[in-house]
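Notebook B, p. 112. Complex prediction, attempt 2.
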Amino acid sequence: MAALNVSVVSADQEVWSGEASMVVARTVEGEIGILPGHEPMLAILAGGEVRVTLPGGEKITANAEDGFLSVHSNDVQVVASRASLA
Amino acid sequence: MGAQLRVYRQKIKSAQTTKKITRAMELISASRIQKAQARVAASTPYSNAITRAVSAVASYSNVAHVLTTEPERVDRAAIVIFSSDRGLAGAFNSQVLREAEELTELLRSQGKEVVYFLVGRKSVGYFSFRRRDYERSWIGGTDSPLFDTAKEISDAVLEAFLRDAADGGVDEIHIVYNRFVSRITQVPVVTRLLPLEVVEGEEEPDAKNEVFPLYEFEPDAETVLDGLLPVYIESRIFNAMLQSAAAKHAATQKAMKSATDNADKLIKDYTRLANEARQSEITQQIAEIVGGADALSSAK
């Protein structure tokens, strides 16, 4: 199965990047889960946590504040002015 | 000790003290360049991600936005000048101010009124010395800019842009800052920030995926663009501040290096002169003694 290339980026640094099997984020319209092969998407994030599931099943949570989420051919970018690993 | 010699020794001493200071400043800014450069590099993924997202929205949707549409008439333009808080940086501040003045002249010749937003104590000093008006200024923290300051600046700039021209709003925003090219070169850059010129169709469909992907926007393209563009402006301003900070440290290092070299040269020159003065003093004393002895022996 293809994996997602995820990067969590804040204004002054790249917080986390790597491969993942699933990303769950909260957008202004509700929670959204992204699996490999998701259609291209741009969404505005509501403040809250972003959960990244690694291929091994391990989970990483990050806090992102006013940012957005972009998905493009298995590249997922969580971009926020302030973001940190929880 | 002769008066001449004393003067030279004083000059040598003063050049030595100055050299110590400039040398210390050179070393300090040399270490700060690296930190500032690292911060520029660390913020690059963010601005890349935002630029990609903005160009994606622009390419895959047909939304007209206030920030991207050219106004029919431009009456007033704003210039944001990024200078430093401290001097001793060679041409750093003067070149950015010169660029700003050239831009002002150009805008005035097009019949536009110009208002200023100033960042850094040096540009504020330049303006208040000439008793010129400016809209707002930010002082302090140009050595290691904070994202909060960038946010504040972009909020102020956007507010001015969105205000009606009749209430003192502006229709165009330009930024002038020093870009860090290398430790030796820093170039003043002038760019128009608003209205945005979004580069469309940056991503070509690749071979295996021959159709343009259909983007999904959540909640919708307009809202996404609404949220994205201010962030884009913020990141551009933050980037300008970081670049300017790195360039400032590089300029200081260069200026202090040449000041140290100059002090070295002065010390060398004055040491030569002091030696010469000492030697001629001794020669003169010997001549006097010999002359005196001669006079004594001939008097007998």
